[in-house]
Structure formats: structure tokens, C-alpha cells
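Page 47, continued from p. 46.
Same chain as before, 193 aa.
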Amino acid sequence: LTDGLLPAADQADPTEGVRQKAAGCVNLIVDIDQLERPDGLAYTIDGAQVPGSIARGMLCRAQINAWYQQADRRLLDLAYDVEYATPTQKLALAVRDGTCRWRHCNTEAQRCEAHHLHHREHGGSTDLDNLALLCPHHHDRLHQNGNRLVMGDTPDHWQLQDAHGTVVSKWTKPPPRRRKPADKSPNQTARVG
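Result:
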């Protein structure tokens, strides 16, 4: 049985149905102090304002050249080609998480996005221990509200924190059960022909 599954798993596209990295590139000027504020702003090169909540979401999804600067306009860093979860990592997340990790959400893994628990702009790595599956709705909601999703000791335990680190909600969400073959009672026999 496993001989037939392994080649199929190798050929399966774990990113099917998942939003992919954008082909284009956006240059975004980010004031670090502004980015974390609920009413904070970032700017495009031509001066268009981008709300901080939208900018935080963009940093997760698009290829962004994020030019970080302080309030005194000193350039701090350039974070370019923001890293994304690989197809293999997305497959591992699908196996580990099964669905969106948000409380009471059962959106299937193939429709979810890999979210950095410790955000990239704060030095978060693109490792499985720092990633969780979120559906697009909850991924956007998390960034728009400025909250953080935090994994507990195991991938079954989660908490939602506000921008100040105060725990807003805690929950336990084990991965969904995988389908098991139907049990046959001892009185049932298979008919052939």
C-alpha cells in the first residue's frame, strides 16, 4: 500500500489552491515604529500610503523590497525577496496542522497559507517551528488587528495575543483525525461476484 502512496505524494502539488508568491515586486518604505502601530503607515516609492495592517500582510505574501528606516529617516536595512515556505514545508504543515490553526476554523490545508509566527520583519525564520497554516480570511484578520498567533509547547496548543503581548484567547486544537477504514463486524463477509 505505501509503495503506491509514496510516488503519488512525490507528484502531488502541496501548493495547489494556495495563493502563490507574486510575480511582480513592490518597493515598500517601512518606518519600523509606524509598522507596529494600529494606525501606522508604510509608503510606496511614489509616496502612496499603505496602512500598516495591509503592509504587514504584504510582507507575508508578495515579493517586497522592504526598506526599513527609523523616524529620523536613517536607513536601517533592506529586506528583499522575503522568504516563503517551500512546497515541501507546506506539505509538512499540511501533515502537521491539517487545517487552519485558528480556533473553530476547519479550512483544509490546501486552501491555507503558511504564516510566520515570529514575523520575518522581526527576524523570524522560515522553519516549521515558526510556521502555522492559516486560511486567507484568518491570516488577513490576524495582520489587520495587529495580533500574534503563538504556538504552545506542542502544535495542538495555541494562543492569540494582542499587540502588547496580552493573551486574548487560548485553545487546544489537535489536527483533524485522518480517515480510517470502516470497521467490519465479524458477522459481515465480503461477497465476490
